[in-house]
Write a structure and sequence with these properties.
The complex is a heterodimer of chains A (394) and B (95). Chain A is α/β, with parallel strands linked by helices and 394 residues long. Chain A has two domains: 245 residues, Rossmann fold, CATH 3.40.50; 134 residues, Rossmann fold (3-Layer(aba) Sandwich). Chain A has 14 helices and 15 strands. A seven-stranded mixed β-sheet of chain A has the order 3-2-4-5-7-6-12, sandwiched between helices. In chain A, strands 9-11-10-13-14-15 form a six-stranded mixed β-sheet, sandwiched between helices. Chain A has a two-stranded antiparallel ribbon with strand order 1-8. In chain A, helix 1 runs parallel beside helix 7 and helix 7 crosses helix 10. Chain A is globular and about 70 Å long. Chain B has 95 residues and is α+β, with helices and mostly antiparallel strands. Chain B has a single domain, classed as Alpha-Beta Plaits. Helix content of chain B is 11%, strand content 17%. Chain B contains two helices and four strands, in the order E-H-E-E-H-E. In chain B, strands 1-4 form a two-stranded antiparallel sheet. A two-stranded antiparallel ribbon of chain B has the order 2-3. In chain B, a hairpin with a 5-residue loop joins strand 2 and strand 3. The mean pLDDT of chain B is 93. Classes of the chains: A alpha/beta (394), B alpha+beta (95). At the A-B interface, helix 9 of A face loops of B.
């Protein structure tokens, strides 16, 4: 591990990363649980530690709108939000991606209302899944810091030019103090030189941004965006992960696996709970149980090939979702996994586990229960109950 | 105009239009169902149609007579409606 060992909570670590990235514009509105990010950045700018424009907007809709303009003008732009704030940004999310801005946003994952809840669900991350933003999931504070720095590099690459979201579980990561290694400013500066704008707003060379686009070319524009997102982004993410490994000693991969090579049963999960699952599975493996864990660092673009590879020896896979999609064939990650594997040469039996909504703890007992359920499925060779809820007062 | 795209592969990144004044290429006259037809003998050169046309597809000539620009006229009929002497008549396209 390279760098200095410090103690920070997730929000402060993300704000520190944005400062080291030397952002030009911070356009954000405070909302729990990411408020500390905006507060910390405001403090840096006020103290003169960060030379950036802070735009104190009146809503998240404006926060992202201002960020879009700043990004297209050539600035390195950072914003942060959560839950309802992201919902208010929703129309601009599509615009930020379609106009190929390079905004980096931290999303302190928080449950959608009703009822009002400030704790963790992945509703907000999932709500942005179709919008064309790159999405990373951090598992701990170290990852939140590292992924923020790497996201700027990925987004601003001229083969990419898409905005990025870094998901960090509300309170569990945003407010938990953890030890982490931070790089020195000079190393970050070398890794992340000033942004090279692509086709920026320029009065000398007028262009139209976001024009009317009807049945004659709209479809082609969508095709180009989709093609670049699916084909250009994943290789650049891998390159950036590789480069970051060299300077930090911390190696990231789109899909993280543990024990799937020899396991019959797999558990797939996003965010901070992956660590808890891995802890329980490690204990179960010591007892001789053949269980593995899959978690995603790169959630969008969805790493289909890597997932197919990761599950090739599994017989049963429990896909855990910290959200629900009302009336859908399953919750959001489950649908991604099921459709990815449908045409794969080998596909395990799948079932969906709903857990942790609104900050409900996922305990080792719950995880053991999921493994027991998977063992039943393995024994019967069929899935009788496609979705189960854990930690629910029945 | 230099923009002559044939495929999605040729489009500029970010849905931008890389040169100005391209709305001139967008001939909205094809939207028209009703066509304004000017009777020059009746026209009193008051220019109300010229002022009211939202496009603007009424072109003012030197002697304050007007000409209708059918490349951009969408056939909304405002000109015919404001004309105080009924010098503009809306006729079905194709008639």
């Amino acid at each position: 591990m390279k760098g200095k060992r410090v103690g920070l909570n997730g929000d402060t670590a993300v704000a520190f990363a944005a400062k080291q990235a030397n952002v030009d514009v911070v356009s954000a509105y405070p909302i729990t649980p990411q408020t500390i990010i905006v507060e910390t950045l405001a403090k840096y700018i006020n103290n003169g530690e960060l030379d950036a424009a802070f735009i104190p907007v009146e809503s998240e809709h404006s926060a992202l709108s201002a960020a879009v303009g700043a990004s297209l003008a050539g600035a390195r732009v950072f914003t942060a939000t959560a839950s309802q704030g992201l919902a208010l940004m929703y129309e601009i999310l599509w615009i930020a991606a379609g106009m190929r801005t390079t905004i980096v946003m931290a999303l302190g994952n928080r449950a959608f209302s009703p009822n009002i809840n400030i704790h963790c669900s992945h509703d907000d991350a999932y709500a942005a899944r179709d919008t064309g933003w790159i999405q990373f999931f951090a598992e701990n504070v170290q990852e939140a810091y590292d992924l923020t720095l790497q996201a700027f590099k990925v987004s601003e690459d001229h083969r990419v030019l898409f905005p990025s979201i870094i998901n960090l579980d509300g309170f569990i990561l945003t407010h938990s103090l953890e030890g982490l290694y931070v790089l020195d400013d000079k190393t970050v500066e070398e890794f992340l030189p000033p942004k090279k704008p692509y086709n920026p707003i320029d009065p000398e060379a007028p262009k139209t941004y976001g024009p009317l686009d009807l049945y004659d070319w709209y479809m082609e524009h969508k095709k180009l965006q989709d093609y670049h997102f699916n084909n250009n982004v994943p290789p650049v993410i891998k390159e950036v992960f590789e480069e970051y490994a060299e300077i930090s000693g911390r190696r990231y991969t789109p899909v993280k696996t543990m024990g799937v090579e020899d396991a019959d049963i797999g558990i797939m999960i996003l965010g901070s709970s992956a660590g808890s699952v891995r802890h329980v599975v490690r204990q179960l493996r010591e007892k001789g149980k053949k269980v593995g864990v899959i978690s995603l660092t790169q959630y969008r673009p969805f790493p289909k090939k890597e997932l197919v590879e990761a599950v090739k020896n599994l017989q049963v896979l429990a896909v855990m979702d910290r959200s629900i999609s009302f009336g859908s064939p399953g919750a959001q990650l489950y649908m991604d996994v099921a459709s990815t594997l449908y045409n794969a040469k080998h596909r395990p039996l799948l079932f969906n586990v709903i857990y942790g909504l609104g900050g409900r703890d996922l305990t080792p007992v719950h995880i053991e229960g999921v493994v027991e359920k998977a063992e039943e499925v393995l024994k019967k060779g069929e899935v009788e109950e496609e979705q189960i809820w854990v930690g629910l007062k029945e | 105009m230099s923009i002559e795209w044939k495929s999605w592969k040729e489009l500029p990144i970010g849905k931008i239009i890389p040169e100005p004044a391209t709305t001139l290429k967008f001939k909205t006259g094809s939207w028209r169902a009703l066509r304004p037809v000017l009777n020059e003998d009746k026209c009193i050169r008051c220019l109300l149609c010229w002022i009211h046309c939202p496009e603007p597809a009424i072109i003012r000539l030197e002697d304050d007579l007007v000409k209708i620009d059918y490349d951009y006229c969408k056939g909304c009929g405002i000109c015919a409606n404001v004309c105080p002497v009924h010098a503009i008549e809306m006729k079905m396209e194709g008639e």
